[in-house]
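pasting input
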Amino acid sequence: MRGIFIWDGGAISPFNAWLIMRGMATLPIRMQAHQENAFKLAAFLENHPRVIRVLYPGLPSHPQHEMAKHQMQNFSGMISFVTDQPHQDAARMMKALQVIHYAVSLGHHRSLIYLMETGDLIDSSYRLEGQELAKFKAVAGDGLFRFSVGLEDADDLIADLEHVLG
Amino acid sequence: MTSTKSTQGLQTKAIHAGESPQKQGKASAPPICMSSTFIVDEPLSFSANNLEPDSPLIYTCWANPTSAQLEVKLAALENAESCVAFSSGMAAPSVLSMPG
């Protein structure tokens, strides 16, 4: 296995290894904090009148909540949700969010949110057709927001989304 | 390299696995070993064909003390036998499809 580093590349640099190692030391307590914040944000979103659907495996409303409880020790900070006006909301987020970054990626201490547009997802990743595509659209509509809940104070994140969603 | 035991909790392992004090100076926090090459004091083949996981350090592209510490930590957290750390997420699946 290690021969691959010499023949084909891919060896990690010592500095990057050191940075990851430094981060790993606080990973378990950070994951607890991610989950704690995610539960608060998921509860806020579930009760928001303009939010149609919240997908968070820690919530009983998630279709695979029972399986998630069996498989996961921590439900993490990743939430998906669908609003009644995804593209308008995305545009508002780009302009008006104060704390949460409208940016791709996930798993940071900073909160990140991005509209995963259904057409883009089907083209680039899922390549669903027919009945499968219809099933996906029934859940995701034109797109769902992927929300990577960071470690900021939950009240500040809620205020940020409240301001955008109205 | 480490005194971490499998019975220890996740947070204890996350902090201590792979990070036993260094022989030189007994630094509490792990230093970064940026050397790309290591002085060899016994006959050692430089061919990757002849290198084993427990071969002495020869070249960072094969193994490096700092990268090895990370690998020990990750293996401990996953309760795995060992670990190989790659330079990126996509590097890992890419090499799986290459001859090696």
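fyi Chain B has a mean pLDDT of 86.
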